[in-house]
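Subject: design request, 99 residues
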């Protein structure tokens, strides 16, 4: 059962805009449940993308990334995968359980 006071405190913590590291957003549980990979780094490496920083990531052609995502994950696009990871991250940080 969810403690409403804890839930309210957790909501305050995640309110606003945050920069979340990929390793937190795409944790091992998420990656193994929805992809063929254990880590987001493994996925990028397998796709042939070198991602050491935000600039590297921003230089990945979106259509190539979407094609790889369709072929190796349960998602149809990077945006869909990112949105689901964000939803899961919020649920975890609210102290709720993922079903």
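Subject: RE: design request

Done. Sequence follows.
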């Amino acid at each position: 059962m969810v403690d409403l006071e804890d839930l309210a405190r957790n909501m305050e913590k995640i309110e606003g805009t945050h920069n979340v590291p990929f390793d937190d957003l795409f944790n091992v549980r998420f990656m193994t449940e929805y992809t063929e990979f254990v880590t987001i780094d493994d996925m990028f490496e397998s796709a042939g993308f070198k991602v050491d920083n935000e600039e590297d990531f921003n230089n990945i052609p979106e259509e190539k990334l979407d094609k790889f995502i369709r072929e190796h994950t349960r998602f149809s696009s990077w945006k869909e995968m990112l949105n689901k990871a964000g939803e899961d991250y919020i649920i975890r940080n609210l102290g709720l359980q993922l079903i």
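The helical segments are 4-14, 22-25, 28-34, 40-47, 54-58, 62-72, 78-94.
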